[in-house]
């Protein structure tokens, strides 16, 4: 099977946040979710992402700030008629995480077919507005139709916290700073979303663990005491940066299956 590769060069935008800043704020329930913030509705679905489950299935995943007893996906081939339902009891977390990861497998789908979906608690109460998302299933085995996929790696946050617009005084990697007319990798992936079928991320995701390194380098202050965060600050800011990354990727990963390879550095 032939594949045309859409190669999007990743700018290494390393993750960080300032120790001197106040804690990451909560959303105020105004219909807009701020990346890395705790939503007003703790069961609000965030950070949607997809993964192929063979040619007749798709795994739909998302995060929430409380555990869900029965993660649910409503889906169908007509956006106005989501008449199929899939559920699971998979809502898991880890000790330092602020969120739960919810996973539901949709099975028995038609190959190479576009489906629309929503997940549990979409657009409820004061939650941020989410559209009905869509995805296209994989082609059947033996289908020789050509396809395209985006390939990238070493991908971190956008903006100040991702070092795409500023670096610390102890960091000599000035080449990583983007100018006002330049586009970072997440922006490129989003602007070209209609030109590829799925994504292959070849490792190094988010760089949330760079928070400590960048503190020591002096990005957040000039004194030793100012640049040495506590263990709790490291854990809190690590999780916030990881959440920001997945929030920023969400407009893409909600509709494009995401294949991720392991690497020496992970969030």
Describe the protein's architecture and organization.
This protein is of the alpha/beta class and 267 residues long. The protein is 14% helix and 24% strand. A four-stranded parallel sheet has the order 1-10-12-14, with no helix packed on it. Strands 2-3-7-6 form a four-stranded antiparallel sheet. The protein has a four-stranded antiparallel sheet with strand order 5-4-8-9, with no helix packed on it. The chain has three helices and 14 strands. It has helices at residues 185-191, 210-217, 231-253, and strands spanning 3-7, 46-52, 58-64, 72-76, 84-87, 91-92, 100-106, 114-119, 133-136, 147-152, 155-156, 198-201, 205-206, 258-260. The model is unreliable at 1-23 (pLDDT under 50). The chain starts with a strand and ends in a 7-residue tail after the last strand. A hairpin with a 7-residue loop joins β6 and β7 (100-106). Residues 44-140 form the Fibronectin type-III domain. It comes from Sporidiobolus salmonicolor (Yeast-like fungus).
Entry keywords:
single chain, 267 residues, alpha/beta, Immunoglobulin-like, 2 domains, four-stranded antiparallel sheet, 3 helices, 14 strands, 24% strand, disordered N terminus
Quickly describe the structure.
The chain contains 3 helices and 14 strands. The chain has 267 residues and is of the alpha/beta class. It has 2 domains: 109 residues, Immunoglobulin-like (Sandwich); 120 residues, no CATH class.
